[in-house]
Amino acid sequence: MIADVLADAEERMDRAVEAAKDDFATVRTGRANPQLFQKILVDYYGSPTPLAQLASLNNAEARSLVITPYDKSALKAIEQAIRDTPNLGANPTNDGTIVRVTLPELTEERRKEFVKLVRAKGEDARVHVRGIRRKSKDDLDALKGDVGEDELVRAEKELDALTRAHVDAIDEALKRKEAELLEV
């Protein structure tokens, strides 16, 4: 029973860390990266569809990306979705077959804004991990009558160590992203 609670907590915390890393990847740095466009939803025949399902994304140069739609009728919708995406600052151009996106050079002020954004995302991820810890602790407390006090204390220490490890993993990913953002 205790092992099940701990295994579930670890699995959920692992997913939270991966979600945080994916979230960090959507914040742009000085280079064009197809991951920046992973969360862009395009209005495709009335339903929001992820851009990656509608087109292939390729790096043409360091600050430009070429988007080749599988369906040419989606060109205008893709271009509009990219233009409407906040915090991207991209200006897409459409030549009838592909969409070319050139990302402007980041200013020092904009880099600092992105660092703040990434730190907020990191704090949200840490709060989520601590929420998982709290729920797992409640689940352990519910087992109080079924298992011994010593086992519960050991399980809580294990849960705390698990939480610390996952928060540290988020902090490490945050540190890497901040360094990447501030690199000129």
Automatic annotation (TrEMBL):
Belongs to the RRF family. Responsible for the release of ribosomes from messenger RNA at the termination of protein biosynthesis. May increase the efficiency of translation by recycling ribosomes from one round of translation to another. Residues 21-182 form the Ribosome recycling factor domain. The gene is frr. SUPFAM superfamilies: Ribosome recycling factor, RRF. Its main location: cytoplasm. This is Ribosome-recycling factor. Keywords: Cytoplasm, Protein biosynthesis. Pfam families: RRF. InterPro entries: Ribosome_recyc_fac, Ribosome_recyc_fac_dom, RRF_sf. It is found in: Cytoplasm.
